[in-house]
Design goal:
It comes from Methanobacterium veterum. By secondary structure, the chain is of the alpha+beta class. 31% of the residues lie in helices and 33% in strands. The radius of gyration is 11 Å and the shape is globular.
């Protein structure tokens, strides 16, 4: 069994399904991420990840690398 933590990330700038796919792909490429669900309407990504492999800051970096901003 693996450890899993859930993070909610508020994302600015997503306006279509292509935006969602781009952010989802970027987050899923982070080693230790188990699951990504993004709600375009609310602009929130829910990410399940292994806290032993990835820090929350890496998730925010992945969103920024996809071209979007994280709202704190």
């Amino acid at each position: 069994m693996f450890d899993s933590t859930k993070a909610e990330i508020k994302i600015s700038g997503m306006s279509c399904a292509h935006c969602v796919a781009r952010v989802e792909k970027s987050l899923k490429n982070v080693d230790g991420v188990k699951e990504v669900k993004i709600d375009l309407e609310s602009g929130k990504a829910t990410v399940k990840y292994n806290p032993k492999k990835v820090e929350p800051s890496k998730l925010e970096e992945a969103v920024k690398e996809a071209g979007y901003d994280v709202i704190n």
